[in-house]
């Protein structure tokens, strides 16, 4: 009898001879990764189980980093354009020549007109550094990509409550019992959210997803609200109406921790109308319940009264709570009044409001944790409302997005569910009051640095970035009457404004990782025309373009000088508490990247290039006392730069009086080595008694001072009523010295309401909703982040092309079948694309994956690659300006408060057409400086 023997298999062969731990950059999660090395090459990437962000979890993108690092589309050397813009014709040059060219172009600008440099960066994670460089150069024209992506969410959160979602805060995953997501696509914070959702499911907590599209997180939600795009704010305010009507709001929380009891001037004839009553120290006043008298909101022992009014000099001052009740108890917010517009039945709105109330108040949590608040009152316990929310681009990228985000913050504050057990929690360095943030600065002086930080949070008209004649000081027109609170700048307007010479001409456009010639432009074809347009002399209207990227993206072909960047495994990076750290709600944390491999091409870390370029240009922050180069490279800057004494880019392992310390301390030459030894990150846990109630908890405030987040405690109350917005309204009403142009008075009075409002998307008033009845959206897939993903040999197999998804109603009405194509038309353009059926979709909405489609010749892909033949962009249908309306104006397709690009307001019409050979439009192929990749991407690591 023969016995069958199983083959002897080694199920865990050694995959490496060394592990180097660093930080992923395949999306914005900033997960910790273990990079397995074999014979000095990258062999395998896995999650780092010790890392605070992902705890070992790694997604498909993170694992595919090995293909990103070895992508055939990597740039190989500095390039100088030798053919026309857009041709892709370059010659390789040395770094010395490249830096000589850049210096020759930029040095005269700095000495004569620094504003003629426009320096804008894309999705990098070094904004505290790049903004510092631009500030030293002296140009007012700097911003990053937030105006595309998230400024509505960030600004609404910071003005309302000192922080927002995603990088600023997260749900209390271990204690929340009801979790609602609004407009969250799968690419953002995906590993922490997936881990968090798993914990919720394990504990039996409920998840409600609010999104026109049921994919990803919404697909695993217990309840899906397939809302009509752009109506989230109306839905949220209907929930607020129901909660207030039922008395299901946390009155004690509102009185103690918000400006609901603060008194507001009610005299409509006064220049102070709508502003807070203040004491001689400028502190907002409340009525003390115990004494019935006026008191500063933060006076020790005061118990603010939500009801009492104050009358003085013939003027009645009412608490914000009165204004809230008047507005949101209005029947226009009742479920029946909003249901049809939102695409949600009234009963469902009522049921969700009831569920929020039940969980918040009937299932409240009490923790036996003693803490002292900012008024000096000792509390024996912490009360938690176990309802939490999370939101992102889906509600942000609308022209009503700022007020919608504010409405969501209002909702969670009324429930008392922010910074409490079970609710939404801030991540250090947040929470921060608006008062601690800078205002924007824009004074350019030849040969000198700018007069302060470019970006910030205006408190009123005096903080706008305007020249003495009232014209915009910035090329993107950020911080003007058109969009006064544009805290992240408006990168999407730079090229069109520069091309129009409005408000002035620039000389050099300097961009980093911003694919403006393709998917990062609202108006792709128009942008290409602007980049290549010439004047009557045959010179380019935008004279010079310098661009840095790691890969042969579509934008490369339109630049005059290319400074090739490294991949994320070949560089130093600083994920800093000064910028966008990796903190969690119970710990302050930052991280680095470091060169786990050296480049095999003639490329350099872009930030190191800026260190050398800054020295060549004699920028004060980049030259030493003898005029030499202050920082040898970015690693040197990370180690030795101090933003102020004792505070540098990294908080861990600094030098104190008695040796190593954390938070505050002098530079430590071995700091990066300490980070590398620790897995690439530093984490400082918040004491248990300081982990909740952070804005008001003196234990947290003192801890934050010790770690270097504040110089002194900064307790504050939440701003349900945002007084800076009222200051802009007052100007529009004719008060004050700085006045808006007449054409904008009504817009400012309407949209800059200090209490959250809802108004229809601006495109609805410009594009005929009957001619264009369908909403069109894009989402980023979980397997992609930005343009990089669809050149990745592994990730391409998941998303090699993208259809336009149609709901059952539209699919049936037009008689579509599998394999059909549609012509999709907007007020601006048309595309012809493949379609697919999706039942779990708002019935008047179509959508597709973002940034899958590629330009022929880019990214080292073959011209017949599916991304270039069946992949497409909705961008061809969008414009950075709204269509003309007969008033002689072209209004920006942006939120009128912040200037955020209103990508998701797009309306279209659809018709079935015969299938073309390729998705339309087809743009001519561009020549790639790196050619095309091999048919099969293979290599061998080790033996």
UniProtKB/TrEMBL annotation:
Its cofactor is [4Fe-4S] cluster. It is found in: Cell envelope. It comes from the Bacteria. Signal peptide: none annotated. GO terms for cellular component: cell envelope. Its main location: other. Keywords: 4Fe-4S, Iron, Iron-sulfur, Metal-binding, Oxidoreductase. The keyword Metal-binding applies. The keyword Phosphoprotein does not apply. Residues 17-73 form the 4Fe-4S Mo/W bis-MGD-type domain. InterPro entries: Asp_de-COase-like_dom_sf, Mopterin_OxRdtase, Mopterin_OxRdtase_4Fe-4S_dom. One of its GO terms (molecular function) is oxidoreductase activity. CDD domains: MopB_CT_2. SMART domains: Molybdop_Fe4S4. Gene3D superfamilies: 2.40.40.20, 3.30.200.210, 3.40.50.740, Dimethylsulfoxide Reductase, domain 2. Belongs to the prokaryotic molybdopterin-containing oxidoreductase family. This is Formate dehydrogenase. It comes from Roseovarius spongiae. The lineage of its organism: Bacteria, Pseudomonadati, Pseudomonadota, Alphaproteobacteria, Rhodobacterales.
